[in-house]
Amino acid sequence: MDGKVIPDAVLLNPACRGQDWADYEQSKSNFGSLLVTPDYDLIERASQELGFSREKFATGEYLFEALYTTLSTSLDFDGAHGARFVEQWLSAKGSAGYAYLGKALVQYHGAWKARGTGFANTVTPEAWDAFYKGLAEANATLDSSSAMLKQMGPWHALKLAIVFAHPKLESERPKALQAASLAWPDYLTVYSIPMERMHPRWGGSYELMEGVARFALDRTKAEHGASIYALLYERQFREDCDCTLADSKADWTLMKQGFRDADKRRALQPLRTKRFAALACQVRDRDEARRLYEIYDKVRDRSAGEEPDACRIFASK
Amino acid sequence: MRAGSLLRSNVGLPAFYLAIAAALWLPGVSGAQPAEQKRYPWDHQPGECFQPSTQADDLTRLSCAAPGWTDFAQAKTNFDRLLADPDYDLIERAANDLGFSAERFASGEYLFEALYLSMVGNFQITGVQGARQAAEWTAAKGGEGYSRLAEALVYYGQAWNVRGSRAARTVSPEAWDLFYSLLEKSDATLNVSSEKLRRTGPWHALKLSIAFHHPRYKADRLTLLKSAIAEWPDYLAVYTIPMEILHPRRGGSFELMEGVAQFALENTRTKHGAAIYALAYEWIFRMDHRHSIAESNVDWPTMRLGFRDVETKRMVRPWMWKNFAGLACQVGDRTEARRLYALYDKSEDAASRTDSDPCRTYANAPSDAKDAIGASGARGPRRP
After folding, report:
1. Considering only CB atoms, which chain B residues are within 8 Å of A130?
2. What 3-state class would DSSP assign to B297?
3. Contacts of B123 in chain A (CB under 8 A)
């Protein structure tokens, strides 16, 4: 716990802040570029600026989401190299900051590599053992991390991912979800992790998924209307799951309200609008799909061209 | 094409013939080419290799063979690199070098497989950018070569982008219509391509992929498969494409998959033993997240024989031993898994192995330890 932390006075001084973290996608890309040829001074500084901030991008994501997504993806992909990188980062900068979360991420992704992403029937007994062992190690690492790190959204996100994957930690799930949602009520991942684990393909049900979505709605309604509810379902049904939103228990009226609330409270994003339209197509709501395509056409970059799109054909009929 | 690069593809010819050919500067080899050739970005040969030739230095120039196509992964990376910063002269030359060659890499794949894999990545799944690049390529170099395949891959990729990879019941009627229409465009593009392109492995592979996904071409499938096999009997994709489409998750069955695998075995046994059979199943189960090979109708003794034939004929990249071992773990064959890990450990990839590999744990456990799922038939719940 001997990492050097940049004083708050510096971090909070607007004059000292560059334009490095102005945009979510660009911030991910910028932080990712630091990982290519590691300079641990810069990596530590960037992880402090992003990871211990409570600010959001105009598009609604927290600054720490850009850090966490990039770090997690990179460590998942890099395997043994990732483990070495984290060791060197820890050695250079101590364990008070995000290097220590990196250590837990290496253990977590190692566990999933051992298990594989296949259905349970494809997993061997040895793979289950290695999976649970890796999750337990990651959990222990999280528990021994600094108080400062434990307050942050990424710590809660990884904690939830672990307890919702390990049956032995089942009793900790409600407590972990409560703690995370109190600390970061509008951090989407806090709800999307349990919601994903409640999906029928993991042995859950659409009723349970709707339960988590309603919990998120209760926590965020005052500030965000139904936008978090809509964004959660969008995230769940974006991935291929041999299912559509029409199979779920989502309240479509609430979803439509959520689309409008998201557009009011967050900067318009062409991709998000198109994904909302895709949900409207899945439930065959032509009017809503058309409305969303009209918004999309106003904000998209027309010079970039467009792929053939069956949902647009449906909306235009 | 300069002499050096042409001669590079004739590696099967005796060395003295190469020397004579270079010394005589064969008509049609150097004469039809511009005096100075562009370099590939990875080509760091001395400058004299790129100067107009004289007979005096021709023999010296034999060492000027351009690098780039000696290893499957490197060849793919090199072609990717060309597409990242397009120079259509270089792209066309590289596509011709790789795509119209019948040579193979030491690891067994045809040269054209590296090209095709790169093209799939750069044209099938890159959307608008890939479409623009394919059109530019054809405009720059004409449609005699691989640019037509690029165009067909663009339509094929658009078709799958529209359909998505979810179960059929989740696909909307508009998406089905558009999917089929785009597959037809892809097929039509293939049909108007040049004679020489139509004889290549990648052309046959894409043609088969389209025919096996579009009900309209159902009656053509067997003819197309036979035609592909007649041209490229040991090109793995010719068998894995129908095997994948006959997978139970697509409405087929493990019996049908095994039928294709046995067909592959019949067509390739004389030359390759059971190697193609083993490679085909490895390819199918490499990305299968729902089933283990223990659930299939694979003939495991033939698989084991196939692993040995792959070893004898050196048709393997090192990491594949680990994948083969993974299959042995799935069926609970500890002895075979251990043998395959020993082969893997001798390979250059072994340095990157991790100790947490559960299949290795299984392989190294005493013989009376608990069996893997394939042997016990145990099935866990569908959740972690």
Report:
1. 356-358, 361
2. coil
3. none
Chain A interface, mutation test: which of B174, B334, B353, most A Cβ atoms within 10 Å?
A: B174
Question: Of all residues in chain B, what percent are helix, strand and coil, respectively (each to 5)?
Answer: 65, 0, 35
* Dihedral sign from CA coordinates of A45, A102, A239, B242: positive
Residue A110: its chain B contacts at CB < 8 A? 354, 356
**A110 vs B379: CB contact, 8 Å cut-off?**
no
Phi, psi of A241 (to 5 degrees): -140, 15
Separation between Cα atoms, residue B306 and residue B108, nearest integer Å: 14
Query: Is A266 in contact with B89 (CB distance < 8 Å)?
Result: no
Q: Distance (Å, rounded) from C-alpha B53 to C-alpha B67? A: 19
The distance of A169 to chain B (nearest Cα, Å) reads: 12
What tens-digit pLDDT sequence spans chain A (317 residues)?
Answer: 344 555 666 556 666 655 779 899 999 999 999 999 999 999 999 999 999 999 999 999 999 999 999 999 999 987 778 999 999 999 999 999 999 999 999 999 999 999 988 888 888 889 999 999 999 999 999 999 999 999 999 999 999 999 999 999 999 999 999 999 999 999 999 999 999 999 998 889 999 999 999 999 999 999 999 999 999 999 999 876 788 999 999 999 999 999 999 999 888 889 999 999 999 999 999 999 999 999 999 999 988 888 999 999 999 98
φ, ψ of residue B142 in degrees (nearest 5): 80, 170
CA A272 to CA A288: how far, in whole Å?
Answer: 14
Classify residue B244 by burial, with Cβ atoms within 10 Å: 0-12, 13-18, 19+: buried
- ipTM greater than 0.90, yes or no? no
- Contact at CB, B358 and A126, closer than 8 angstroms: yes
Cβ contact, residue pair A120, B383, below 8 Å: yes
Alpha helices by DSSP H, listed for chain A, are: 8-11, 24-36, 40-51, 63-78, 80-93, 98-115, 125-143, 147-150, 153-163, 173-183, 188-197, 206-224, 227-238, 252-265, 270-282, 286-299, 310-316
Contacts of B322 (CB under 8 A, 6+ apart): B340, B341, B344, B349, B353, B357, B359
Contacts of residues A242-248 at CB distance under 8 Å and 24 or more positions apart, as own/partner, are: A242/A201, A242/B166, A242/B167, A242/B170, A243/A200, A243/A201, A243/B166, A243/B167, A243/B170, A244/A282, A244/A283, A244/B166, A244/B170, A245/A279, A245/A282, A245/A283, A246/A282, A246/A283, A246/A284, A247/A206, A248/A206, A248/A209, A248/A210
Q: Which residues contact A21 (CB under 8 A, 6 or more apart)?
A: A27, A30, A49, A50, A57, A63, A66
| A202 to B384: CB separation less than 8 angstroms, yes or no | yes
Residues of B within 8 A of A310 (CB-CB) are 162, 172, 174-175, 177-179
Nearest-neighbour CA in chain A from B289: distance (Å):
4
Chain B residues whose beta carbon lies within 8 Å of the beta carbon of residue A208: none
Asked if A130 has any chain B CB less than 8 Å from its own CB, the reply is yes
In the DSSP assignment, the letter for residue B65 is P
Kindly tell me the sign of the dihedral angle through the C-alpha atoms of A227, A230, A233, A235. negative
Other CB atoms within 10 A of residue A266 CB: 18
Residues of A in contact with B352 (CB under 8 A): 79-80
pTM for this one?
A: 0.82
For B258, the enclosing helix (H) or strand (E) is helix B254-272
Among the listed residues A294, A285, A273, the one whose alpha carbon sits nearest the alpha carbon of residue A314 = A285
The DSSP 8-state label assigned to residue A97 in this structure reads: S
Quick check: A122 contacting B, CB < 8 Å? yes
The single-letter code of the amino acid at A4 is K
* Separation in Å, CA of B54 to nearest CA in chain A: 46
What pairs with residue B104 in β-bridges? Answer: B110
Q: Which amino acid is at B329?
A: C
